[in-house]
Design goal:
single chain; about 350 residues; alpha/beta; seven-stranded parallel beta sheet; four-stranded mixed beta sheet; 11 strands; about 20% strand; globular
């Protein structure tokens, strides 16, 4: 009943995920765990997730046990597990490619060629017999993401794409994983209660109540390395597409929209602040304006969602299901292969768990 998981990118999201599995390892099946659909998800408990490989480019993390690397700078995720046990997984040097923007090389403590040689990711995945590889690379890692996806295909393991590089939602990549007999889930993880899911709920409410939406925006600021990385606009293209389509896909007409990260504020650290604005008209063309401010710890906000995704992917592996997983992707990601309202997506996942829905 073990789920063998490899991680690419040992940043704040990886820290929250690794801590979360330790934090909730003794939860009972009927306990309520914030952020999870179920403690027991199709027969798999949280503690069934075991990490078997980890890849990063930070010279301070490479060679460390994963349990130590998740607390190594520049990580600033909240520490909610005071004493992490050793996991017996050393962080290995992954390929750099475009996974590090030029302005981030020093912040990420990026290794140099004379310090380390990147490992063959596919060989490592085969050696540890990984069930799946989770992509937690920085936004804008176009080539690096595809390198890891290719490695997963070569190694014969599933791929979970948590960043806004379109793999699961790309027909060619989806077809390649299906042909290889491997499941894939993605793209761009949707947090438990983050800016996108809240914006979707608000917009859906306007549409369902017949309020005409004239314009809307969503602005996000934060102080972790994700926001520092995204100060380079060219790395933001797919992120803006992912977040924007997640919201506008619920509106049956075109709406002037501005959605995406807007600034980096160092002292916020892993705190994310979001501002949502929606302007519309109700009966008699009378004005309606809504403004919302949301503040969350950014990285833990997605960890529970990823735990559910991991277990859904394992169920797919057990059942011999290949290609994009439609239900869990629609529920857990901003840019899935099929975009539907969140309530429908959740129902699809429940049906998938029960075996009533193939994907």
């Amino acid at each position: 009943m073990v789920i063998k998981v490899a991680i690419a990118g040992i940043g704040n999201c990886a820290s929250a995920l690794v801590q979360g599995i330790e934090y909730y390892k003794d939860a009972k099946d009927d306990d309520f765990v914030p952020g999870l659909m179920h403690v027991n998800f199709g027969g798999y408990h949280i503690r069934d997730i075991k990490f078997v490989a980890a890849f990063d480019v930070n010279r301070l993390k490479i060679g460390k046990d994963l349990s130590e690397a998740i607390f190594t700078e520049p990580n600033c995720c909240a520490r909610f597990v005071e004493s992490m046990p050793k996991l017996g997984v050393k962080v290995l040097p992954g390929p750099i490619l475009d996974g590090v923007a030029p302005h981030m090389r020093e912040t990420f403590k990026t290794y140099s060629e004379d310090e380390y040689e990147p490992v063959d990711v596919a060989s490592v995945l085969k050696e540890v017999d990984a069930d799946m590889l989770i992509n937690f690379l920085p936004v804008g890692s176009y080539h690096a993401t595809r390198h890891y996806a290719e490695a997963a295909l070569k190694a014969g393991c599933a791929f979970v794409n948590c960043i806004p590089e379109f793999i699961a939602s790309d027909k060619e990549w989806a077809a390649r994983f299906e042909a290889a007999g491997l499941p894939i889930a993605g793209d761009d993880v949707k947090s438990q209660l983050g800016a996108t899911i809240l914006h979707r709920a608000i917009v859906n409410l306007f549409v369902e109540r017949g309020v005409a939406i004239d314009e809307t925006y969503q602005l996000n600021i934060g102080g972790n390395t994700d926001f520092l990385n995204m100060t380079l606009e060219e790395r933001l293209k797919t992120k803006r597409v992912s977040k924007t389509e997640a919201v506008t896909s619920l509106v049956p007409y075109e709406v002037p929209t501005k959605i995406g990260p807007s600034d980096y504020v160092p002292f916020l650290k892993d705190k994310k602040v979001c501002y949502i604005y929606v302007k519309g008209r109700n009966f008699g063309n009378q004005p309606v304006t809504l403004t919302v401010r949301l503040e969350v710890e950014d990285s833990p906000n997605s960890a529970g969602v990823v735990i559910d995704v991991i277990r859904a992917v394992k169920l797919a592996l057990n059942r011999g299901i290949a290609g994009p997983l439609i239900s869990i992707s629609a529920y857990a990601f901003k840019h899935p292969p099929v975009q539907v309202p969140d309530s429908m997506a959740r129902q699809w996942v429940e049906e998938f768990i029960d075996g009533k829905r193939e994907r």
